[in-house]
Amino acid sequence: MNHENIKVRNEQILNDYVAGMSVEAISEKYQLSSYHCYSILRQLDYRKYERTAVKSRSPFPDRNQQIIDEYRNGVSATELTKKYNLSRARVYKILSHSDEYVSHRISGVLTLRRAKIIERNKKIIADVKTHPDIPITEIASKYNISPSIVYTVLRTQKKSKEKHLVKD
């Protein structure tokens, strides 16, 4: 192959790459190694050209849409990770591709876990009110939590009471 033919071939390789053909397919078409194809593309400064290939879509569009819909309906990301056998990072990545994604904490959605915690906290406060002489450690062991969490619940309750008294 003479110099002119090589120049034409290299331009065809660049055109194929810009049109969206993979380097592996180009290497098979021109019977070159993929390393050699990359070398040719670098020589022709392929980065200044915009590829017209359609970016690959998610291989799981239905699953991802189900995850987005369930999250919107109040299912927590932790529950979704267990259900779909995904990492929490992957679930949040899928959610971030949704245009309307807003975290549950910001949007005020009451997840199942949060509802259980609120119910547990109400029971703790009721126990303390009905039996003020019971030690905090006993209450903590009853709910299988640490005493510091019981103190936090009581402190939060006290602060919310103070806010309501100031507003009235």
Would you mind describing this structure in some detail?
The protein is mainly alpha-helical and 168 residues long. Helices cover 68% and strands 0% of the residues. The protein has 10 helices and no strands. Helix 2 (23-30) crosses helix 3, helix 5 packs across helix 6 and helix 9 packs across helix 10. The relative contact order is 0.06. The mean pLDDT is 84.
Question: Secondary-structure blueprint of this entry?
Answer:
Layout: H1 3-18, H2 23-30, H3 34-43, H4 61-72, H5 77-84, H6 88-96, H7 104-107, H8 112-130, H9 136-142, H10 147-167
Number of helices: 10
Number of DSSP strand runs: 0
Strand content: under 5%
Q: Tell me the helix content.
A: 55-70%
Rg for CA atoms: 30 Å
Largest sheet: none
Helix/strand order: HHHHHHHHHH
Report the structural category: mainly alpha
Distance between the termini: 91 Å
| Low-pLDDT segments, ≥5 res | none
Mean residue pLDDT: 84
- The dominant shape is rod-shaped
What's this entry about, in short?
By secondary structure, the protein is mainly alpha-helical.
Key attributes of the depicted protein:
168 residues; 10 helices
